[in-house]
Each structure stands twice: as structure tokens, then as C-alpha cells.
Specification:
By secondary structure, this protein is of the alpha+beta class. It contains 4 helices and 3 strands; from the N terminus they run αβββααα. The protein has a 3-stranded antiparallel sheet with strand order 1-2-3. The termini are far apart.
């Protein structure tokens, strides 16, 4: 099954901002941080898209949610309500996904370091999810309403051992 290729950024600001965040994670994966994970969902009101970013060691066994016992400093949190003020950084506005990735490594070393390593299955899955997001279909793993998932919506089974 093929999908169209996005030729321009979304004109909808929340989608454009969320896609930039996913692009940041894609850039981290390209740089060798393929064990960094996303956990996207909807706010209880259904108005805001949220996405936690962490490393594989702080994820639940299903690979979709941050583990309940994960330390707060092991999770970077974004909500579309923040618009393009990613992680409350004063210098995040108008930054590209690549620029955000550089800042993420510098400002979240406690996530970046354990996120180093190869996980081609997850990185490949995220590439496809990014393509869907660029067309306006943001990933959602949790919400306060029933969700249905299609093939490829959910990440592959978590890797069991660190890889280099």
C-alpha cells in the first residue's frame, strides 16, 4: 500500500508543530539515537495532542506508554497547546527538526545517552509514521475515548537487549 508524499508543511499550526517534533525524533534516530521513543496521545478534553519522549528503558512493556515508575527527568513532554515552544525552551520557536534534535541532545542528556543504539525496526516504523503525520494523520496511542488501530499504527515489539 502506498501513500501520497507530502510536498509542503501542513497549513494547520498544531499539525505542523507536532510534525516538527516527530521530525526531531527522526533526526535523533538518523544520528544513532534509535532507542529514543515517543508516546503520543490526546488530552482528556481531546483538544490537545501530547507526546512524551524518552528512551526504551523508560517505556512500558507494550512499547506505547512511558512506564509508571519512570523518573521525571527521563521524560520530555510536549503538548500542542504549547505551539512551537517545545519543552518550554525560549529559543525553540521557528527551529527546524534538526536544530531541535541538537538542542535535545544537549538539554536532555539523561534521555539521549540511554537512547543511543540501533533499533532499525523502530526507526523504520517512525519514518512511516512521520510520513503519515506530514499528511495530517498524527499518531495517537492513548485517549479518553476508544481507539482503533490499523496495521502499522503501533510501534514494533520493543527490543529486549541494548544494541550498538
Amino acid at each position: 500500500m502506498t501513500s501520497p508524499i507530502s510536498l509542503a508543511p501542513s497549513t494547520t499550526p498544531p499539525v505542523r508543530n507536532a510534525t516538527r517534533l516527530l521530525t526531531m525524533v527522526h533526526e535523533l534516530h538518523k544520528a544513532g539515537y534509535q532507542r529514543i521513543r515517543i508516546s503520543p496521545g490526546m488530552s482528556p478534553s481531546g483538544v490537545y495532542w501530547r507526546c512524551s519522549i524518552t528512551h526504551i528503558g523508560a517505556m512500558d512493556a507494550d512499547g506505547r506508554r512511558v512506564a509508571p515508575g519512570a523518573a521525571a527527568d527521563q521524560v520530555a513532554f510536549y503538548t500542542s497547546g504549547a505551539e512551537d515552544r517545545y519543552f518550554d525552551w525560549p529559543d525553540a520557536r521557528a527551529r527546524s527538526g534538526r536544530e531541535l534534535a541538537v538542542r535535545f541532545i544537549e538539554r536532555f542528556p539523561q534521555i539521549a545517552q540511554p537512547g543511543l543504539g540501533r533499533d532499525w525496526a523502530y526507526a523504520g516504523w517512525l519514518t512511516e509514521i512521520l510520513g503519515r503525520a506530514e499528511l495530517g494523520r498524527l499518531p495517537v496511542f492513548f485517549a479518553d475515548y476508544p481507539l482503533s488501530f490499523e496495521d502499522g499504527d503501533l510501534p514494533p515489539a520493543p527490543a529486549t537487549a541494548p544494541s550498538a
